[in-house]
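Lecture notes, unit on protein representations.

Consider one protein chain, 145 amino acids long.
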Amino acid sequence: MSRSYVLNYLHCVFATKQRKPTINDPASVWAYIRGIARNRQFDLLAIGGTNNHIHLLVALPPERNISDTMRDIKANSSRFIRTTNRLFAWQDGYAAVSVSPSQRPTVKKYIGNQVEHHRVRSFEDEYLSLLKRSGADFDPDDVLG
């Protein structure tokens, strides 16, 4: 084979410190994170969330790893948010679950419906459900710290 083909899709989720509703202008934060993706040269296929957490669907090229990508997103977006909310912080950690190419449209739709989704389900329930469905090994008492 003379060429490599890499399809590395990840559904990433992370929350504000103590899951407090401190994302005051979600649209500007989403736009800023789109800029981070452009500058760091990875594809951001979907972004959404509420005032206390974010969902991303990213396509990572083979030269990018998830831990550096999440560090870049969280550190830079945190700096941006602190320009209007000096007490803002992200909670430590994140979930990054692989997504089959055939499931990209489903995940995109799910991410796009976050506000509606959270009218009936808490972030905590959603996060634990995502981890359970993905088969992650976790302690429910420790995961939301």
